[in-house]
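Recap from last week: sequence in, structure out.
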Amino acid sequence: MRRLRHRTRHGTQHRVRLLAHRIDTATPPGRDRAVDALRAVAVLGVVLGHWLVTALVADGGELHTGSPLQHLPWLAPISWVFQTLAVFFLVGGHVATRSYATAQAGGTPYHRWLTARLSRLFAPVAVLLALWTVVTAALLLSGTGFTTVRTLAKLALSPLWFLVVFAALTAATPLVARLNPLWPLAVVLHVDLLRFGFGAAPDVGWVNLAAGWLVPYSLGAAWTRGELDRPRAGWVLLVGGTAATAGLVAWAGYPASMVGVPGAAVSNLDPPTLAAVTFGLAQCGLALLLRERLRRTMRRPLAWAAVALVNLSAMTIFLWHQTALMATTATGLLLGRLPGLHTPPDHLGWIAARLLWLPVFALALGLCLAAFHGYERGRPRTRPRVVRTRRASGRAAPKGVRHV
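Predicted structure tokens:
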């Protein structure tokens, strides 16, 4: 029996290494693998962050949203690690600007370029909306409380705000290609001065929904232009962004948490504040400084294969991770109020229990990937494929991960 288990383990490892080698050898030699690594880190950071700080508390037959950051504010540094949206916008601006330049050089019209890029973003959205329309109707017809239905639907569809902003910035890429990041940063600064310094209406802050994320997106364009190639640029962003964020939190009254906290008077993300933007600058600086190390790491076939597979499913992972969390929570209710899943996140025991639920969330997300990943590629598939390019012999070979 021991020998059989050893052979099985050895065979599995061999197949994994073979797949990794195929993906590695099929990747175009000139591909900047650090870009894909940064995107994978950004997506997985958002997913893990949501899974760690989003609680669905069962109370009196209803589910409502909670967060350990609401009860244990000293856990705010968790949000510094997992709030990685600025890195995603940095990579997005870099890739889109480079893609647009290539399209221009090849004579591709703007509308065709934009349609191709947006179709990759929104192809998986239709099935998410369709499923949650059915689920919402079914829950209401079954007598589920409106508060519970609203909580579930809001969480499930919350990733869509990101797509709307990202799509708008993608459409503006020809204008952003030469934009100095200091201009949108100045807009964010003045909006916050109006909001917090002169008592302007809170709605003024929604200007920062575009301006705030335009800062890292335009940094990505500057990366494409070669303006951020020197390590000095990364250090300026990292040190300057860190110092500015620390000053804003310590002396200007900005929240320490870089994600929204239920019940808080001010959120750094809803809409983005100057503190969130300066924190994003620090993250972008760190990302730029890590590029060479990531390129070396991505030369390892196993590391590159893992990053490549995350990139192939990036939008599906992003769109469905909240659904995976809620599906696990709803299923768990059949067993009663489970620690770390349905109980208030107001003590360290909840944190320990939530960590044990992470593999279950990952399994639920894996089921979502199996069911819906085909829509990310533009059509549903009966079986997953990683490869489509052909070798000289005509046999299928792994396809390099394309930028999204």
